[in-house]
Amino acid sequence: MLKIENLTATVGDDAKQIINGLTLEVPAGEVHAIMGPNGAGKSTLSYVLTGRSGYEVTGGTATLNGEDLLGMDPEERAAKGMFLSFQYPVEIPGVPVMTFVRTAMNSQRKLRGEDEISAPDFIKKSREIAKKLKLDAEMLKRPVNVGFSGGEKKRLEIYQMMMLDPSFLILDETDSGLDIDALKTVAEGVNAMRSPERGMLVITHYQRLLDYIKPDKVHVLAAGRIVKTGGPDLAHRLEAEGYDGILGEAV
Ligand code: ADP
Ligand code: MG
Ligand code: MG
Asked: Where along the chain do its domains lie?
């Protein structure tokens, strides 16, 4: 599904190389975790995959379902089903959550050549998902992220994710700063979105999220490339031994 081969990418005005020959494959239906020390390039990878400006690919390939991702603009990638969660959710004063999500849904549909979702269909879908997430309908009328608690922001993000129904999900340290209840909410949302057609990449600095989201594989990213791949046990080893031992082995 997602296939990255020998990817290199630079960041910023001084074109510092952050991604250094990264190769990774996530088949449809699987959840893979990426762990790694601070500054390894985890967030950079997620930005390169979603096409954020300021990040330049200098070599290698990345495809989603066989289609070249790197040649598409960010909106096209989103329309193809790439979804990146935010480490730090942005506030959008004046724009209600529902309006924001409906606009995003419709712009993606338009790019795919589909009709806009009708108001009744949108409301029906929104109600179903809000019910599943135990979200108060009143919350969905409030401006995006303004005045929401950390846990509420996460639930709203999962609401957005479920509404948009992406085919590939990237969660970048979506667990940072969350208490255990919010962490479980995130995990339940992610687990509910597991499906044979959908792939997921869960980027996390800590093992604890992976107690709730059981990954099929765990990759260690260091200095801009994947240096080790294993099963869920690898995450426990990293927690117990730190990155140094495992990175020493990998070299
Ligand atoms: P991680 O998410 O693994 O902690 P990042 O991808 O955020 O790491 O950062 C990788 C490296 O790239 C760091 O050394 C960081 O300082 C650098 N970096 C990230 N963004 C920029 C930028 N816009 N300009 C210059 N350097 C950057
Ligand atoms: Mg970091
Ligand atoms: Mg990061």
From this structure: 2-90+166-250
